[in-house]
Amino acid sequence: MIINMILCVIVVLIAGMLIMRTLTKKKEQKVEQEIQQDDKTYTLAKMTEFVKRRLDEITKINLYDIGLSEEELKRRKKKKYELKKALKGCTYGDVNDKKYVKELIYDLLLKEYGVDETNISKAIPFDIPSLLTDQDKFDILIYMYKKEFGYEALTQLIKKYNLATLKYISGEAKPSYVITGDEISDIFEKEQLVLSFSDKLNVVVQRIYQHYKGYSSIDEVRDMNIDGVSGGVSGLPESFLSQVAQTDGDYLDQVLENKVPRACDSIWIFFQGKSIRLAFLSFETESELKRVCQNIYKYNNPGQLSDSNGYKINEMKDGSRVVVVRPSFSETWAFFVRKFDVKRATLEQLVLGPGHEKGIDLLKFLVKGARIISLTGEQGCGKTTMLMGMIENIYETMNIRVQETAFELHLRKIYPTRNILTFRETETISGQEGLDVQKKTDGSVNIIGEVATDPVASWMIQAAQVASKFTLFTHHAKTFPNLVTALRNSMLRTGVFNDERTAEEQVVQVLNFDIHLVKDFRGRRYIERVTECIPLEDKNEYTFDHRNEKTLEGKMDKFFDNATHYFTKVTDRKLYDYVNIMEYIDGEYVLTNKISDTNIREMRNNMDETDLEAFDKFVEENWGSVSNKKEEKVVAKRTRKKSNV
Asked: What is the mean pLDDT of residues 203-220?
């Protein structure tokens, strides 16, 4: 009797569980049906939510719980690992991982979410151009141009429609470099693009990707072959809104209506030397700008960006340099990405205009002649790119050692068979320590990406004297005397010397040539001058003429002559002179003063036979015959023989 009752209870419980399960399934099916009928199902927000959930499921699923065969388990594990790796790598700027993730999103939307030709326009109104936003039009333009031109898409678009020009826009008194939404709309109308369903879905996939794993509105722009991109560097910071609200309510209304740009509306590109504002693009919210800043610098785990450590300098996976800053170090979140196109870093592509042949030959001979060269100029004038172009002319027998703040030159990508090793500063290893290590790595040429600190400047001077055959470095000095003064002061501040004159004497004895680059207000970059430093010898001008004088007055006159020479040397003796070897005059490169005989002789000593003949011809054609040329050739040959032995 009791057993029967227990069995009845069990049967009732099982039946109840089956009924509940059936009802739950029906309820879920009803909810799903309601979602499918919802107008918001195919919006970007809903599809992004779906993609996030599905990718999360795929990466977190326990494959051992679903009863797979051994072969299928291995295959699924491999795909799961690849997806995890790609999801991580795409946030570092890896275009291959980005492509993999986008293809997966494409398949999810097409095969699982049911996106088709009819409902895709609910995400972006492709069929009604008047409803497209400026960003929609730009995304479509970039996608279609990218199909034809690859990563040159943005460059081709800007050049075709002459967008990189100074222009006046409403509300601004002075012209500026800006690309407006009206210009993008006009271009979109002129192009008359015809998109297939696949094209439309790819545009939607890109939009979903950039807000999920990408860099928001700059995601595709960052991949383009341009000089750089930055954000958060203009507009009104969020912290100012409370101040504005207390003082000017009308101004706050204008900000809220997007009539006044906010910091999150700030997107700039650096294109062929010009900083251009993309007025039609925006991060929309401060939190989106913050998300981009927090993700864009993460490659190789450089450490945490925090309030106490308010900036980070790092590189991305494609070699781009990235600098990120945050409050309270800066007034708003901001980032700066600089890209260096290693394929274009040749002197023939960098030195352009009338007379460029002579300019290119001069730079090549300076490098082949093993001269210590500084490249100076303001930020963005092309110092690093010019340095990359000059390195091509260093003899392949010389080992190259590079010291940088962040990896920028990437010389081994250009010259994979050459003996090159690059060091950089870290949180625990200073630039000074890195340069000390270089002395023990059999390097012939020291290249310093930027002499930015006193210890590095001081060590550079010391290394140029004894540690390497010659040195190339960049600096931000505006004039040649400023360069000498800055290097001298660095020597003093680090305690290497205590006397100004002695420190300056060491600098001018080391420094041979300065190449000064300029970027004008139109963004045009060129070499303004090539300057040679000529140390002045300390001649003994004292005399003993006082011994020949018979009178006391005569002896005193001769004594005062010697005293005058002494005080001149002590107080105001000129330690160096400098002359411009080449200048940029009226849009043309012109060779002016001749290279000094001392430098010509030393340059010959470091050249092979072929370059020696070409250099002699270059000097004769531009500055006339060289004195004692045969004798100097003999000296050069003897020097090379000794060095070979």
From this structure: 93
Question: What's the full length of the chain, in residues?
Answer: 645
pTM exceeds 0.90, yes or no: no
Tell me the C-alpha distance between 159 and 543, whole Å.
70
The rounded distance, in Å, linking the Cα atoms of 542 and 142 is 75
Distance (Å, whole) CA 221 – CA 228: 9
Q: Across the beta sheet with 445-448, what order do the strands follow? A: 420-424, 400-404, 445-448, 470-475, 373-376, 513-519, 525-535, 576-585, 588-591
Lowest average pLDDT, out of 280-294, 538-552, 599-613, goes to 538-552
Tens of pLDDT, residues 239-290: 666 555 555 555 555 555 556 788 889 999 998 888 899 999 999 889 999 9
Q: Helix or strand or coil: residue 444?
A: coil
State which H helix or E strand residue 249 sits in. helix 249-256
Q: Are 282 and 244 in contact (CB under 8 A)?
A: no
* Distance, CA of 88 to CA of 84 (rounded, Å): 6
Closest CA to 597 of 547, 509, 532: 532
Measured over the CA atoms of residue 52, residue 54, residue 55 and residue 59, the dihedral's sign is positive
Secondary structure (DSSP) of 332-371: S-EEEEE---GGG-SHHHHS-STTHHHHHHHHHHHHHTT-
Q: Please give the full DSSP string across 532-584, using - where no structure is assigned.
A: EEEEPP-------GGGG--SHHHHHHHHHHHHHHHHHHHHH---EEEEEEEEE
**What residues are paired with 473 via a beta bridge?**
374, 448
**Contact status, residue 505 vs residue 487, Cβ threshold 8 Å:** no
**Given phi > 0 = left and psi -120 to 50 = alpha, else beta, which region is 353?**
left
Residue 272 CA to residue 337 CA, distance in Å, equals 15
**Residue located via tokens 């003949």:** 613
Residue 579's SS3 state is strand
Max avg pLDDT among 211-215, 248-252, 300-304, 505-509: 211-215
The DSSP code for 262 is: B
Distance in angstroms (rounded) separating the CA atoms of residues 481 and 475: 13
Amino acid identity at 295: N
Q: Radius of gyration over alpha carbons of the chain, in Å? A: 34
Among residues 533, 508, 530, the alpha carbon closest in space to that of 517 is found at 530
CA distance 266 to 279: 8
521, 519, 482, 522: which is closest to 504 by C-alpha?
482
Give, in order, the Cα–Cα distances in Å from 167 to each of 174, 229, 276.
8, 20, 11
pLDDT digits over 333-366, tens only? Answer: 999 998 876 666 788 888 888 989 999 999 999 9
